[in-house]
Amino acid sequence: MQLIDRFLPHGTKFDFIRYRLIAFGITACLVLGSLTLIVVKGFNFGIDFAGGILIEAQSTNGPADLHQMRTSLSTLGLGEVSLQQFGDTGRDVMIRVQRQDGGDKAQMEALAKVKDTLGSAYSYRRVEIVGPKVGDELVRDGVLAVVLALGAIAVYVWFRFEWQFGVGALISTFHDVITTFGLFALTGLEFNLTTVAAILTIAGYSVNDTVVEYDRVRENLRKYKTMSIYDLINLSVNETLARTILTVATVFVTVLALLFFGGEVLRGFAIAMLWGLVIGTYSSIYVAMPMLIYFNLRSGKDREKDAEPAPTP
Description:
Blueprint: H1 2-7, H2 20-40, E1 44-45, H3 47-50, E2 52-59, H4 66-73, E3 81-86, E4 92-98, H5 103-118, E5 122-130, H6 132-160, H7 163-187, E6 190-191, H8 193-223, H9 229-239, H10 241-261, H11 267-294, H12 300-307
Parallel strand pairs: 1-6
Antiparallel strand pairs: 2-4, 2-5, 3-4
């Protein structure tokens, strides 16, 4: 613990709020850019949402020959078939086959064709078949989960603190969620149910970080009644800086382990979480906190004046 304390900043006096206008400009660019990418480019929906067949195959005879596999599967008339090699040995391949017309029977026939074509040279570790109705329901439920999570977060912070804090937390969390959507639209990473789980996790992490800083603001409002809101917010950010760095570093190392050793299934989740850690920390300091100034949060002295009884005539 003493070794950790040596490398954590204590008693810092950085003027974070001074750069709020620059941060707001960056925030606006990130949000507008993300919305543009979502509308123009869209998402690379995985089997969970788009429907179709997902096969995780492993070669039993050394590294997989993607060229030979692609040539063989392209002659089956199954439409779009994508292959993606993953893992360190080169033996693992993710096969995605577009949704077939004709219901569940057509999906099973397509799966049988793929297995017959690849033959005994491959073993099958995972097979998923998702129909169009299930895919549409998952899209609707995923959107509903994100919206309800944002609403619950806003209500929670609103009741725990004041309306200024609730609105600030909602804007900050919305910023984190929408930019994560933008990341997936920009990179073309597969958007699936694991991605939705990552986005909900990011929202929870972001609001937790914001609440910690808001709680310190509330404490300092009682402690430093004559301090200006600008200085009080700066003080609060600096006082929680060591905790923020320690939390981010700990989670970052854990998520890096997921990225490198979690396999292809967790790759999108890990990338989203790494982005969420960075953007969530940024938004807590440069979005949620400066918002309190523009929402006219009153100092401790002003609050005492408001609480004084009106003079009797």
